[in-house]
UniProtKB/TrEMBL annotation:
InterPro entries the UniProt entry points to: Aldolase_TIM, Chorismate_mutase_GmP-bac, Class-I_DAHP_synthase, CM_dom_sf, CM_II_prokaryot, DAHP1/KDSA, DAHP_syn_2
Keyword Transferase annotated: yes
Organism classification: Bacteria, Bacillati, Bacillota, Bacilli, Bacillales
GO terms under biological process: aromatic amino acid family biosynthetic process; chorismate metabolic process
EC code: 2.5.1.54
Keyword Transferase: yes
NCBIfam families: CM_A, DAHP_synth_Bsub, PRK08673.1, PRK12595.1
Stated name of the protein: 3-deoxy-7-phosphoheptulonate synthase
Molecular function terms from GO: 3-deoxy-7-phosphoheptulonate synthase activity; aldehyde-lyase activity; chorismate mutase activity
Source taxon at top rank: Bacteria
Keywords assigned: Transferase
Domain Chorismate mutase: 1-90
Amino acid sequence: MSNLDLEQLREKVDAVNLQILSLINERASVIQDIGKLKEKQGVDRYDPLRERHMLNLLRENNIGPLEQKTVDHIFKEIFKSALDMQEEDHRKALLVSRKKKAEDTVININGETVGAGNPSFIFGPCAVESQDQVSKVAEAISGKGLRMIRGGAYKPRTSPYDFQGLGLEGLKMLKKAADQYNLAVVSEIVTPSHLEEALDYVDVVQVGARNMQNFELLKAVGQIDKPVLLKRGMSATVDEFINAAEYIIASGNDQIILCERGIRTYEKATRNTLDISAVPILKQETHLPVFVDVTHSTGRRDLLLPAAKAAIAIGADGVMAEVHPDPAVALSDAQQQMDLNQFDEYYDALMKFMKQYEMQV
Ligand code: PEP
Ligand code: MN
């Protein structure tokens, strides 16, 4: 074969490549139209019967020289690329998606603008245990000029024999302490049936890690007119976390704060593994404020400060940590709550850190 022949054949291959490119792009745009139709009709994007039919048709018409299994392989890839593209379009269309809304969602909680650029802080005991307990913590929080207090009244405990929380009575105590010190109440609700009674006492409804995929609860908090602090499930992927938030926004409530609280891994040095990279991913993918709960992610008092610094440095909109007047006798999470002195030291150190890098509260 002369060099000229080779050149001509190569030109032919280039031309065929371009034809294939143009055809698979044409195919992709038809698939996009199909995707839009399916979305409107609420039909699943992947249809195995349809895929089988297309493969059969190709088999019947394959005159070679390509072997059938090669043709199957190539077309499976083409089918998959179209499906990936539809998934991507679908993700961009999510209401929580940054592609859908470019600006940050800013939530006003008791005069505190959450998500506006400066970190916010939520402190308070793991569980509400007594009026005196929550009042002491509320006083310490308000002494720092902060605006929110947390405390669990309905506690989702791993064991049914562990302290289950004081329920509505606990919420009333928390609200009383919060009112006295002009704080907003952040508290977990575990079932839609508690929501109505709780709303008189709660300013921010927390959906806990164990309930991140309690879809009925997500839909219920989607119908209220109060901010929701949604915690990441302990074995939830970022994608599942984003979809849980989508449940809330799709039901009408866009005041959502995402909270990374560590995920379960094989690592035992910490209670959970703080997935710090989830913070910038969630900030990129969604327009929602993102918090980091340093208490439940690390489960270690000595790691609360470095984890909070990391959270702020990586762009978190806020940090949550647990504070109890006497952690040694706390009814839950005794290992990891800060006492009031440790709280002072922790907050001072965090403020110093932020000042050093010219960040503001
Ligand atoms: C909590 O914040 O009180 C709590 C129980 O945390 P999580 O749902 O993240 O375990
Ligand atoms: Mn706790």
